[in-house]
Protein 1
Amino acid sequence: MRVLSSLGGLLAALCIGSSACAADRVGDPLAGKAWSDENVCKECHNPDGNSTVAEYPRLGGQQAAYLYKQLRDFRDGRRRNVIMQALTQELGDAELANVSAHFAAQPVMKGTVASAQSASSLGRKLFEQGDGARGIPACSACHGADGKGRVAGGLAYPAIGGQHRFYLRGQLQDWRSDIRRNSPDGVMNQIAKSLGDKDIEALADYLSGL
Ligand code: HEC
Ligand code: HEC
């Protein structure tokens, strides 16, 4: 818990005046829906954001402030992905905020409880309690007890419960190897470096079922 509270304090302190913070811009979900209907987002992420293809993350019910931050991070080069960087290049903040509000208002991403229950107990333990001896904080402390994310202290913690297993595994590997580096003060890089391959498999398994 000591690790966790020091990380939490660090994030809160960093948030003041930093671009790492959840953006406070609130979008218009109806304008976002109209815009999204005319654009390609739905081809990969589905009209309600609950993509059925493992490579394309689910956006349905995701925290609006998190979606908005990611879209600006892609556009401004803080998060790298060939497709998403190309698609956001020409877009303004208002369009990004609106489309974020639209997907956030859709049914929340959801796995099947049966698959969470059949996942190994390691994934559940790391999510609920972490592993103090190895410096791994409980994921639930930041991502919410139900894994559906939250906004606290000006920061957006994304929903990870019910996300595709393939995508979760990929992101955890990318945080660990510093391919993805857009979390506030590198908090997810620090955490992922304490995770072994077996931990990542177990977490992706468990979380995708929630
Ligand atoms: C050709 C397929 C494709 C299209 C079209 C597409 N995306 Fe994506 N999107 C992806 C992929 C692949 C990723 C994962 C990138 C990664 O691995 O970092 C992604 C990631 C995202 C994320 C980050 C999700 C997260 O959990 O961090 C957001 C937000 C997003 N897309 C929104 C959009 C919006 C809005 C549009 C329409 C303007 C759109 N996407 C169009 C393929 C697509
Ligand atoms: C101290 C708070 C904190 C803790 C503890 C934490 N996270 Fe995170 N996590 C974050 C933040 C903040 C982000 C959003 C980063 C960004 O803005 O790009 C994030 C993002 C993620 C993402 C990317 C989601 C997406 O849609 O792309 C995954 C996956 C993730 N965390 C998994 C975990 C797992 C697994 C654990 C437990 C081992 C964990 N996190 C513990 C703060 C935390």
Protein 2
Amino acid sequence: MKILLKILGGIIVLLLFCVACGYGYLMFAYPAVPPPTAFEIEATPERLARGKYLNDHVVGCTTCHTRRDWTKFSGPVMEDRLGSGGESFNLGPAGMLYSKNITPAAIGSWSDGDLLRAVTQGVSKDGTAMFPLMPYPHFGAMDQEDVHAVLAYIRSLKAIENTPPAGKLSFPLNLIVRTIPKSNTFGKRPPRADKVAYGQYMTKAALCGDCHTASVSGTPMPGMEFAGSVEGADNWQFVETGYRVRAANITPDANTGIGSWTEMQFIDKFKGFETATNTTLAEYERANNTVMPITAYAGMTRDDLAAIYAYLRTLKPVTNRVEKFPDAK
Ligand code: HEC
Ligand code: HEC
């Protein structure tokens, strides 16, 4: 009996030792990204213009980094708080995150190298690993010039003092998150003439797949790319509007996707909201409100939207019927 207890005790000590070593290694070796590079992004007028276009209508830094007004159609951002963070992202049992203040009041002391590393590799200036809800894996694969343009523009935002609440990830995600940031390899923006490849680039930059592809434990479900919400997936439904909203199937399936939409219909779906009036919705209309920032996407050029449409047409049609607004009567 005594010997058995001794062996058991020995095993427990050994196990605790292994856990401590593993924890120590995780803390010491991760996040595994190189130190920030020293360089400056020159804010040329071309960069600022391109950066504003990409931010306002495509990559949406300030769409996530600003509180949105869900009493209005598609939750427009509160302009007087632009970039000051605090929008909440409910990850269910995985935790709760808040976007950070990215105006000069908060990141004014960061070097361009610090900022570039945060946005493309996922490590904050103080060394904290970020959860990829902040879409650094996408931004790290974009054309470096496009990223520089966006960052030049972000630097020009008005300084607003605001300290959003700290986010919280539950165990074990709070440890796993340290292993996600990686050094990145920038891509190349394909020429516009190559409509499908260019459309794919813009679709990724606009993060369409992040909402429209169901994922489990952060990994996209194989075969369900752009097929919309799937019951039980991490991103099964959004609740930000106060009602349940599910992402539509945007594969070319004729019955349950957008296979029957013409290019013109697709473009007009977005362009129709370019001059949205921002009126406050009645309670019954809020059950039909969307989390897709379509009023922001509406400012994309017709050519860019046409390219996105062209890319979406090349996807595998997937049959998946989605009830988009289950609470609407
Ligand atoms: C889908 C929403 C979303 C988009 C789009 C987005 N962010 Fe973020 N961002 C976040 C969230 C959420 C965090 C906090 C992540 C965390 O706590 O792990 C964050 C964190 C950051 C941080 C770290 C700030 C700090 O104090 O640690 C920076 C810098 C940043 N984002 C810049 C940007 C820029 C620039 C863009 C556009 C190129 C952008 N973000 C686009 C959601 C987003
Ligand atoms: C923040 C999450 C989110 C992002 C990002 C997003 N969508 Fe959506 N989308 C939704 C949701 C939710 C719906 C269903 C509600 C609605 O109709 O707006 C939807 C609906 C749609 C529809 C209407 C489909 C139908 O059957 O009526 C189209 C088309 C669409 N999205 C295309 C896109 C494209 C293209 C992009 C990228 C430029 C994009 N979405 C980005 C969440 C998102």
Protein 3
Amino acid sequence: MKNIQKLTIAVLLAAGLVAVACGKKADAPTAEAPAAIDGAEVYTTYACNTCHGDKGLGDGAAGASLNPKPRNFTDATWKNGTDLATVVSTIKNGIEGSGMAPYAGVIPDAEIEAVAKYVLKLGGK
Ligand code: HEC
């Protein structure tokens, strides 16, 4: 009986710690982030440049053998469109059947928005 009680307490403590950790994570973007995020930094931190190229011309080494090719952001038309909300959703959901992976849950939302603005800028949009 004692052991079971100890185990129960340990499990509850662990769950509490996880809850606290998650709570902190969720608070961080709204508390500090928005103004400070540099889309260019997100672009290289998450290796977008390895496929899309440093200048967004779709000429990164890791994208050379992909079919379809990574988007050249200066292309006049993009598969899913170039308004900010669409680009954010493309980055979150990826493009099925291509090398463009879904980044939802990988990159925090505020950083996705920053990198979306950055790729639009690289494309002159
Ligand atoms: C492994 C290579 C690869 C990486 C890394 C990669 N992409 Fe892509 N991306 C692609 C490919 C390939 C496409 C084109 C898919 C298609 O045309 O169907 C694409 C398409 C896109 C598009 C869609 C444009 C459109 O046509 O609607 C955007 C925006 C984009 N990528 C942004 C990013 C961002 C931001 C990152 C980094 C967080 C990133 N990509 C990382 C390969 C990559």
Protein 4
Amino acid sequence: MANQSFTKSVLKKTIIGIIIGGILVVAAQQTHFPPIFQIMFFIYAMLGSLVFILLDAPPMKRLEGVKALGALLVFYVLLSGLYIAGASILPQFDPADEAGKIEKILKIRKARSEQGKADELIARAKVLDERAKAITAQLSSLGAGAQVEVASTSGAKAPASGDIIAKGKEQWELQECYNCHKLFGSGGKKRGPVLDNIGSLMTPEALREKILNPKSWMAEGFDKQYEKGKMPDKYRDLMFEEEINALVAFLSTLKDTSVETPKPIKMN
Ligand code: HEC
């Protein structure tokens, strides 16, 4: 009798859990939560049901002595296993790693703005220089005989270009292309095409087009992902010209013909 009503209670609470979970999922979709969160909300609703089910559960037989200790250990091992498994399935972030990446991205931007300020000062100095020369010319044409020494300013030298391919590889990491693309046997969790042989299939010009405008080319067999616009359309806003040049140079070196790389198709 007690068992029967417990079964009923389990059924009722499971159904309530599914309904609440469903409502949460719909609400999360409407408010544009990513799918992983939608799944988590549903799991939370079901865990809530589980708690209420446990409250109604008939009491267990009392365990004592060694048995109680054994049961405690089993419970501990199960729970730890569950947590470890859960943690290894979910993506892990290393804060130090992320901070390092952000620093690298910011470095060039900071250097840029400092270079920008220097350029502006040099430009202003040049204007003043011109004016001083004009005044000198005017003075001498007036016969005043005044000699004004004009110091001319010279522009700052551009920094020597480093190893462009290494920089391109760094962009591959910083822009997180590896999230979707497998390369040298790693990455590609989000299932974009493998790129080990892309340098044989696309010219530097085409690679550049693809990065700046992902709709310009489509990897063969990836029609669905192409339609959905899986490859982000953000690099032209995020990356500087020289960063794109470096990335293209790096991609152009990828000519491992032993790795089957989807054929790019020109779209528009
Ligand atoms: C969120 C996932 C995602 C990210 C991040 C991403 N891509 Fe893609 N990429 C795709 C998908 C999916 C395709 C296949 C569909 C298509 O061609 O649009 C693709 C296609 C390509 C292709 C054409 C491959 C072929 O065989 O034709 C190249 C080249 C490429 N990506 C380069 C890059 C580079 C470089 C980056 C980093 C700056 C990058 N992608 C970042 C998802 C991504």
